[in-house]
Amino acid sequence: MATHHENQTMIAENPLYKELFYMGYTGRENTYEYFTEKEEAILNEVRLKKPQILADPKTLIEFRAKLRWKSQIGLLFLYEITRRVNTSDEPF
Asked: 28, 22, 8: which is closest to 53 by C-alpha?
């Protein structure tokens, strides 16, 4: 059985994220915006050249979920959560 840590991999470890770099992504653009603008072309390319990446449907589901945190609203939300936790005197 996988541990909690094993299930919580970083987006950089997701094979779809790594494929973005082979398709023109430089790491300077917002990852969410880059993927959503080119999603169909990226997925078609991956299906054609490396179908094993998408063989497990969880790979794409996990990638999309983690990618939301890279969107502008996701980054703002994360900032607000961190700010509120760091300024809170109340225990959790």
From this structure: 22
